[in-house]
Design a protein that fits this description.
By secondary structure, this protein is of the alpha+beta class. It folds into 2 domains: about 130 residues, 3-Layer(bba) Sandwich (FAD/NAD(P)-binding domain), CATH 3.50.50; about 160 residues, Succinate dehydrogenase/fumarate reductase flavoprotein, catalytic domain (Flavocytochrome C3, Chain A, domain 1, Alpha-Beta Complex), CATH 3.90.700.10. Helix content is about 25%, strand content about 20%. It contains 7 helices and 17 strands. The strands form 6 sheets. Strands 9-10-13-12 form a 4-stranded antiparallel β-sheet, with helices on both faces. Helix 5 crosses helix 6. It starts with a strand and ends in an 8-residue tail after the last helix.
């Protein structure tokens, strides 16, 4: 690799940059659902939303493959389930991650609970929702809980701050077609298209456990201490839809973060870091992750790649 050819997306002009080493860090591919379903054919019949940075389209992976690089563990994708479709997205493909609703319950298309909602992560809640037919659920809450809703998207923050804008979140709840409301549980069941009798019984049964002072619900073991009942109308339901969030696989590299071919031989002059390389090496996190466990490996691989690329270019001694 001797450089990069780039195109100015505004003017259309082509820029050619020659270099003794190139470091790529173009991110993952979770904003390319076609690519997600290409590596996860088991999800092709489900609706999956885009949940990563808008530039995470997999272009970097294709570029590396075009010059002989190889990828690994591309099917290891971390999904969030606590997200709704973004009604402002003209393509209807992006998701909005919802947080701040610890007392909600989840019901499937049949109107019943199916999981301990406290286990909402990619290795638990997402797996449970993807096993439903169809693969989505409704996050059910009452009017007292909507005040706590937070949307993990800059368009719902106060400008210049990573703090939610309550008025924007309120507008989302009122305007989104993916959030339904009803003056009664029966009315809400009708709005979300689930069997009324099952839905009402599900909510009442759950509430009764809290009312009786049970330590946990008898169906799925969810702790009930200090839990709010769903009892203050109007009632709301958010259409939680699986959302592709993190890529744990990517371009295979050696310990110097050099992209390697199918025989594990380095491609001269090409270094890869960050989520493009599955955070580092192609799969450093394994199949699971926690909040923040991708940031460290991404930064680390960037330092390693940069140091060895600089050495290739005649600067420095590599990573020490």
């Amino acid at each position: 690799i001797i450089g990069v050819i780039a195109e100015d997306t505004t003017s259309g002009d082509t820029v050619e940059v020659l270099a003794k080493a190139v470091v790529m860090g173009s991110g993952g591919f979770n904003s390319n659902i076609d690519m997600v379903k290409e590596v996860r054919p088991d999800l092709r019949r489900h609706r999956i939303l885009e949940g990563s940075g808008r530039g995470d389209t997999g272009d970097g992976h294709r570029m590396v493959e075009a010059v002989g690089g190889t990828t690994t563990h591309m099917d290891d994708i971390w999904f969030y389930v606590f997200a709704i479709p973004d009604h402002k997205d003209e393509h209807g493909r992006r998701g909005l991650v919802i947080r701040g609703v610890p007392d909600n319950i989840w019901v499937n298309a049949q109107g019943v609970r199916f999981h301990n909602e406290d286990l909402s992560g990619g290795g638990t809640g997402s797996v449970a929702v993807l096993a439903q037919e169809p693969a989505y659920c409704w996050s059910v809450m009452d009017s007292t809980m909507t005040n706590d809703v937070t949307v993990s998207d800059p368009q719902y923050y106060i400008p210049g701050a990573s703090v939610k804008d309550p008025e924007k979140v309120k507008a989302l709840i009122e305007e989104s077609p993916h959030i339904k409301s009803g003056a009664t549980l029966e009315a809400l069941a009708s709005e979300i298209g689930v069997p009324e009798d099952r839905f009402v019984e599900t909510v009442n049964h759950y509430n009764s456990g809290i009312d009786q002072g049970l330590k946990e619900d008898p169906d799925f073991g969810r702790p009930l201490s200090n839990r709010k009942m769903i009892q203050s109308p109007p009632y709301f339901a958010l259409n939680f839809t699986p959302t592709a969030r993190k890529n744990f696989g990517g371009v295979k590299t050696d310990l110097k973060c050099r992209a390697v071919d199918k025989h594990y031989k380095p491609i001269p002059g090409l270094f890869v870091a960050g989520e493009l390389a599955g955070m580092a090496g192609g799969h450093i996190n394994g199949k699971h992750g926690l909040e923040g466990t991708m940031l460290g490996p991404a930064l680390f691989s960037g330092r390693v790649a940069g140091a060895w690329a600089a050495k290739d270019a005649g600067f420095g001694e590599g990573f020490k």
